[in-house]
UniProtKB/TrEMBL annotation:
Superkingdom as given in the UniProt entry: Bacteria
SUPFAM superfamilies: ClpP/crotonase, PDZ domain-like
Family classification: Belongs to the peptidase S41A family.
Every PDZ domain range: 99-167
SMART domains: PDZ, TSPc
Protein name: S41 family peptidase
Higher taxonomy: Bacteria, Pseudomonadati, Pseudomonadota, Alphaproteobacteria, Acetobacterales
CDD domains (UniProt xref): cpPDZ_CPP-like, Peptidase_S41_CPP
Keywords per UniProt: Hydrolase, Protease, Serine protease
InterPro entries in UniProt: ClpP/crotonase-like_dom_sf (IPR029045), CtpA/B_N (IPR055210), PDZ (IPR001478), PDZ_sf (IPR036034), Peptidase_S41A (IPR004447), Tail-specific_protease (IPR005151)
NCBIfam families: prc
Length: 465
C-alpha cells in the first residue's frame, strides 16, 4: 500500500485543517541589518501595544455603557472572529463547542441539515448539499442564500452562529427561507434534522463496462471508501471494465491528506500538490508513490461550480499529469489551505496559512479548474454568467499566477476526433435531471460514452502505428 497516512497535523483545504508550526533562527545580533530589523520589530510592537490599548478602551466603554449588560466571553469571541473574518472568507474562530463539532465532522458523522456553507453579504450561502441528507432531499442547491432561520433573519449572525442554529436534536424541525438566483419569490422549506452520516463514496456500474464513483466530501473515510469502491467495481465487471468516472461535482472539499491520498491512488509518480506559505522555508510538496488502484484504466473526472478545494487538488493533479480527462464545468476556485490551531481551553482558530499549487505550478485561487472538455448540465447553464465562485467572495485572496507563471499543460493525447464527439449541451427538450435516474444526468452520460469510445479507438490507434 502506498502513502496511507500523513498525520503530522490535520490540515484542510476546504472544510477542515490542522496545526502545523515552523521555527525560525536568528543570525548574529551584532550585524547592522539584524540591529535594524530588531529596531523595526520594536517599533512594530510598540504600535501593536497602542492598538491593543485602543481595543481595551473600547471594550471597557462597551461593557460599562451598552444599553444592556454584555457577556465578556461573547464580546471577546466576537471581536476575535471579526478580526479573522476580516482577513479572508475562510479564516474564523471556533469556540470550544464549535471546535468539537468540527472534529466530529472530519470523522464523518455530525448532526444537522447536511449542507456545506459559507457567508456572503450577511447571508448564509450554500456551497453544496451533502448527498442523502435532509437538505439534499428537500432540493437545496449550490448558490442558494439562506436568509432566515425559523423566521429570524441571519443578518448580523456570524457564520458559526448561523451553523449553530441549523444544528440541533435529531427529529427537531427548522424552517429555512432561501433566496435562489433566478427565482423571484423566497423559497420556504421545513427540514427535519438528522444525524448526518454521509456516505462519502457511492458507486455502481454504468452498464456492464464503466465504473462510476462519486465522492461527496474528503473526510477521514474517503480514501478507504474509494479503494473499496474500485475493488468492488473491478470484481463486478469481471474483466470488462473499460474506464472509471470519478464524480467530484458539488464536492466542497475537506482534508488535505485525503486529497493527496486519493490523487496518489491514480498516479505512479510525480508531484501531487505543493503549498507555499508566507515564509519560503514553510513550503511543502507531496509526491506520488508507485501503484495505481485502477491498473491504468482510462479515467474521467467530473467537476462543476460546486467542486472546491480538495476536489480541485485531485482534479488538478490528474489533469496536469494527463492521467485523467477533466470534464464538466469550471470549478469553484478555492486555492488556499486553512490550518486549525487549537487554543487550549478556548476552541481553535481556522487560519489561512498557505496557497496550494497543482503539479505544473498553477494556482487555481479565484480561477478554478477549467475542464479539458466542457459539458454543461443544462442548456440554461450555457447562457448564464459564471457565479457563486471563490473570486466573488469578499476579501478573497488574489491569484499569483502572474508572479509565478506556470508552464502550459501538455496536450491531451486522445484518438483523433474523440473529443469532438462529446456534446457540450443537452439536446432541446431533454428530460430534467432526476437524481434517481442516471439516464437524465447529461454530464454523466457524456462521460460514459466518451470512455466507451476511447476504449474502442485506442486499440485501433495502436494498430495503425
Amino acid at each position: 500500500m502506498k502513502g496511507r497516512s500523513m498525520k503530522p497535523g490535520l490540515r484542510m483545504v476546504g472544510v477542515v485543517a490542522a496545526a502545523f508550526a515552523a521555527g525560525t533562527a536568528l543570525g548574529p545580533l551584532v550585524a547592522p541589518p539584524i540591529v535594524s530589523a530588531f529596531a523595526q520589530e520594536a517599533g512594530g510592537r510598540a504600535e501593536s501595544y497602542r492598538l491593543l490599548d485602543l481595543f481595551a478602551t473600547v471594550f471597557e466603554r462597551v461593557k460599562a455603557e451598552y444599553v444592556e449588560p454584555i457577556n465578556d466571553r461573547d464580546a471577546i469571541e466576537s471581536a476575535i472572529n471579526g478580526m479573522l473574518q476580516g482577513l479572508d472568507p475562510h479564516s474564523s474562530y471556533m469556540n470550544a463547542r464549535s471546535f468539537r463539532d468540527m472534529q466530529v465532522q472530519t470523522r464523518g458523522e455530525f448532526g444537522g441539515l447536511g449542507i456545506e456553507v459559507s457567508q456572503e453579504g450577511g447571508y448564509v450561502k450554500v456551497i453544496s448539499p451533502i448527498d442523502d441528507t435532509p437538505a439534499a432531499r428537500a432540493g437545496v442547491k449550490p448558490g442558494d442564500l439562506i436568509t432566515h432561520l425559523n423566521g429570524s433573519s441571519v443578518q448580523g449572525l456570524t457564520l458559526q452562529e448561523a451553523v449553530d442554529q441549523m444544528r440541533g436534536e435529531r427529529g427537531s424541525s427548522l424552517k429555512v427561507t432561501i433566496r435562489r438566483p433566478g427565482t423571484e419569490s423566497p423559497i420556504e422549506l421545513t427540514l427535519v434534522r438528522e444525524v448526518i452520516r454521509p456516505q462519502v463514496a457511492r458507486f455502481r456500474m454504468e452498464g456492464t463496462d464503466i465504473g462510476y464513483v462519486r465522492l461527496s466530501s474528503f473526510n477521514d473515510q474517503t480514501d478507504n471508501a474509494l479503494r473499496n469502491a474500485v475493488t468492488t467495481l473491478r470484481r463486478q465487471a469481471g474483466g470488462n471494465l473499460k474506464g472509471i468516472i470519478l464524480d467530484l461535482r458539488n464536492n466542497p472539499g475537506g482534508l488535505l491528506d485525503q486529497a493527496i491520498q486519493v490523487s496518489d491512488d491514480f498516479l505512479n509518480q510525480g508531484e501531487i500538490v505543493s503549498t507555499r506559505a508566507r515564509r519560503p522555508e514553510d513550503a511543502q510538496r507531496w509526491n506520488a508513490k508507485p501503484g495505481d488502484i485502477t491498473d491504468n484504466l482510462h479515467v474521467v473526472v467530473l467537476v462543476n461550480g460546486g467542486s472546491a478545494s480538495a476536489s480541485e487538488i485531485v482534479a488538478g493533479a490528474l489533469q496536469d499529469h494527463r492521467r485523467a480527462v477533466v470534464m464538466g464545468a469550471k470549478s469553484f476556485g478555492k486555492g488556499s489551505v486553512q490550518t486549525v490551531m487549537p487554543i487550549p481551553g478556548n476552541g481553535a482558530i481556522r487560519l489561512t496559512t498557505a496557497r496550494y499549487y497543482t503539479p505544473s505550478g498553477r494556482s487555481i485561487q479565484g480561477l478554478g479548474i477549467t475542464p479539458d472538455i466542457e459539458v454543461l448540465a443544462t442548456r440554461e447553464e450555457g447562457n448564464a454568467p459564471l457565479r457563486d465562485r471563490e473570486a466573488e467572495l469578499r476579501r478573497a485572496l488574489r491569484n499569483d499566477n502572474d508572479a509565478h507563471p506556470p508552464p502550459p499543460l501538455p496536450p491531451l493525447e486522445l484518438p483523433a476526433g474523440l473529443a469532438d464527439k462529446v456534446q457540450r449541451l443537452p439536446p432541446e427538450g431533454a428530460a430534467a435531471f432526476d437524481p434517481a435516474k442516471p439516464e437524465t444526468d447529461f454530464q454523466l452520460q457524456q462521460a460514459a460514452g466518451f470512455l466507451r469510445a476511447w476504449a474502442v479507438a485506442e486499440p485501433q490507434r495502436r494498430a495503425a502505428r
